[in-house]
Amino acid sequence: MRLIELYKSVQGESSFTGVPCIFVRFAGCNLRCAWCDSTYTFHGGKPFTEVEVVAQIQSLQPCPLVEFTGGEPMLHARELLPLMRRLLRDDTTRYTLMMETSGERPLEEVPAEVHKIVDVKCPGSGPAFGSFRMSNLETLTARDEIKFVLRDRRDYEFARDFTREHLAGKIADGTLGGILLSPAFHQSPSPLRTADNMELDPRDLVQWMLEDGLPARLSLQMHKFVWEPQKKGV
Measured between alpha carbons, how far is 164 from 154 in angstroms, rounded to an integer? Predict the structure, then answer.
């Protein structure tokens, strides 16, 4: 498997926001979202064996929360899935595993214990729009969350309508853990740690959520307010 970086910080998104976390960032992505903040992962990286990745994770303990991200981690499913199962068998540390994924790759074989943060690409994502694999809805559990990255009102309305049609029932019966609405950041943000770097004003997003009574969570990528938004490895 090829990794861009492996480091310890705090989780900036999802229901785990603010929790110390080890990030395992894979190289490579088959999508090209217009707002992508991780274009540096598209190429390069260094090869690692499963044993080497486990050793690096162990060297950063104590920190039992581990997230696999990218790029697109499921492009490395052949190596990633056995790695997940190995960590889940570790009775000493008792890892909690997360994965951020585009939702374009099939997720049926991901261990049920893994917390999946699955993107549904909105129109503003450009060429990635429409890439979500609808069969992945059947793999979701109460551990999982669906995320929409939003650039404007059109993206919000897409997310709202998708939620009403496909997700609200899963929230109501407890078979989906949550829905995240995340304003996109400008690709060339200023070093200021403010909401001015967002393409969509979060005040507008909050107002729309309240008007529509959407069963979703505002997600502001906390790490881009703790550190400069363009900073990597944090």
Answer: 15
Whether the CB-CB separation of 104 and 29 falls below 8 Å is answered with no
Q: Is the pLDDT of residue 234 over 90?
A: no
Residues 90 and 55: their CA atoms lie apart, in Å, by: 13
Within 13 A of 24's CA, how many CA atoms are on the CB side? Answer: 31
pTM of the prediction? 0.95
Topology at the third CATH level for domain 2-226: TIM Barrel (3.20.20)
Separation CA 84–CA 68 (nearest Å): 9
CA angle 212, 19, 171 (to 5 degrees): 30
The first and second tokens of residue 10, run together, are: 């705090």
**Residue 173: its pLDDT value, please?**
95
What phi and psi values does residue 212 have, to the nearest 5 degrees? -95, -5
Chain mean pLDDT for the chain:
96
Domain ranges of the chain: 2-226
Task: Return the closest-CA partner of residue 154 out of 164, 165, 162, 146.
Answer: 162
Q: Give me the phi and psi of 93, to 5 degrees please.
A: -95, -30
